[in-house]
Amino acid sequence: MAAYALARLRVRREHPDIADYIELIQPTLDPFGGRFLIHGGRSEVVEGQWEGDTVLLEFPGMKEARGWYESEEYREILPLRTRHIEGDVILVDGVPPHYDPRTTAAAMREKPGRS
């Protein structure tokens, strides 16, 4: 089951380190099967508030996502971003192939104590 690294990058201070980080990140992703699905792109907020840029990386699974984030190679370049960009990053499991949300709804209805 795929897993994702999702980042919301809120405050960005322009600096040459950011270009270095972007240039160096792909080789840290490759050993873990990681790839960009979203990298900044135009956003349209349709509910709530969402400020900043969005980045979405896909990995084959949570093991690979965590392995990438904790890898020595990524940790080495991470300060190039974190010194100049404030944001939030999460790792999250995706859903299995052929996921049907109706199954989740049915399981919720079967739980005791449901209002």
UniProtKB/TrEMBL annotation:
<dbReference type="InterPro" id="IPR010753">
    <property type="entry name" value="DUF1330"/>
</dbReference>
<feature type="domain" description="DUF1330">
    <location>
        <begin position="3"/>
        <end position="95"/>
    </location>
</feature>
<dbReference type="InterPro" id="IPR011008">
    <property type="entry name" value="Dimeric_a/b-barrel"/>
</dbReference>
<protein>
    <submittedName>
        <fullName>DUF1330 domain-containing protein</fullName>
    </submittedName>
</protein>
<dbReference type="Pfam" id="PF07045">
    <property type="entry name" value="DUF1330"/>
</dbReference>
